[in-house]
């Protein structure tokens, strides 16, 4: 009798204990946070600035205007400053005055020191060139071709022949006051002519070959004002 009573009461106790354990186990379960997928940030696409489109009609107009003054250029006097650099480092700088007489095909180049005193001159008819000292006395002479071969920026001495110069080169116009010339044949280089907007006469002539750059800046430009008879020293009649 006692054993059956114990068995009767024992079963409910175990059932209640099992329920309590099950309830406690459920209460202690860890609630995992929801997984959040990070937003993918797309990189901002920055458009590259496109180079200005060249206008063939504008380029042709600039070329024609340049040829126009070249054809009508009878006399020229201009100050110049010329700088030569290698790989961005200046290796020489000179200044002076250039004179040109188209009728006689004569050119004079006076090189000056810092205070404007002439230290050397070169006078040529583009056949023979005479080198003069600061007193105007001849110290040497050589052929025009020999002398010109040592001058990287030959366009500085080619006034009156710019029409032919353009014919020998491909011409681009990256902006309205700049013509960039590359030779149609022969050695590779670029010639940059920065033009005055009023008449398309060069105010800067830059020659670039590899790491070497020679630039001549022209100021006090006087066109078609007759030059004094003594300008070319009587070397050429």
Describe the fold and architecture.
A hairpin with a 5-residue loop joins strand 3 and strand 4. It is built from four helices and eleven strands, in the order ααββββββααβββββ. The protein has 237 residues and is an alpha+beta fold. The chain has an eleven-stranded antiparallel sheet. The protein starts with a helix and ends in a 14-residue tail after the last strand. The chain has a domain at 67-226: Clam (outer membrane lipoprotein receptor (LolB), chain A). It has helices spanning 2-27, 56-72, 144-149, 162-167, and strands spanning 75-86, 89-101, 106-112, 118-124, 128-132, 138-143, 169-175, 178-183, 190-195, 202-209, 212-223. The relative contact order is 0.16. The longest helix is centred in the first third of the chain and has 26 residues, at 2-27. The radius of gyration is 42 Å and the shape is globular.
Mean pLDDT: 82
Largest sheet: 11 strands, antiparallel
CATH 4th-level superfamily of one domain: Lipoprotein localisation LolA/LolB/LppX
| CATH architectural grouping of one domain | Clam
Q: State the helix count.
A: 4
Beta fraction of the residues? Answer: 35-45%
Number of strands: 11
How far apart are the termini? 158 Å
Which regions are unreliable across 5 or more consecutive residues at pLDDT < 50? 1-28
Task: Please compute the radius of gyration using only Cα atoms.
Answer: 42 Å
CATH class of one domain, anyone? Mainly Beta
Percent helix, as a range, is 10-25%
Oligomer: single chain
Strand order of the largest sheet: 6-5-4-3-2-1-11-10-9-8-7
Question: Structural class of the helix and strand makeup?
Answer: alpha+beta
CATH topology of one domain: outer membrane lipoprotein receptor (LolB), chain A
SSE sequence, one letter per element: HHEEEEEEHHEEEEE
Shape: globular
């Amino acid at each position: 009798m006692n054993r059956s009573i114990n068995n009767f009461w024992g079963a409910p106790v175990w059932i209640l204990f099992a329920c309590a354990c099950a309830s406690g186990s459920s209460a202690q379960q860890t609630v995992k946070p929801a997984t959040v997928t990070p937003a993918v940030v797309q990189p901002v696409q920055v458009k590259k600035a496109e180079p200005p489109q060249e206008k063939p009609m504008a380029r042709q107009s600039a070329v024609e205007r340049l040829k126009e003054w070249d054809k009508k250029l009878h006399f020229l006097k201009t100050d110049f400053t010329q700088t030569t650099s290698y790989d961005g480092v200046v290796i020489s700088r000179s200044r002076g005055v250039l004179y040109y007489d188209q009728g006689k095909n004569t050119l004079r180049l006076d090189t000056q020191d810092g205070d404007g005193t002439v230290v050397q001159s070169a006078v040529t008819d583009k056949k023979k060139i005479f080198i003069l000292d600061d007193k105007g006395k001849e110290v040497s002479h050589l052929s025009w071709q020999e002398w010109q071969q040592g001058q990287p920026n030959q366009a500085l001495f080619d006034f009156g022949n710019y029409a032919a110069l353009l014919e020998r080169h491909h011409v681009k116009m990256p902006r309205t006051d700049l013509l960039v010339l590359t030779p149609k044949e022969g050695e590779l280089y670029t010639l940059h002519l920065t033009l005055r907007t009023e008449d398309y006469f060069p105010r800067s002539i830059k020659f670039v070959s590899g790491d070497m750059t020679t630039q001549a800046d022209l100021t006090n430009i006087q066109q078609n004002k007759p030059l004094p008879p003594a300008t070319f020293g009587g070397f050429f009649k």
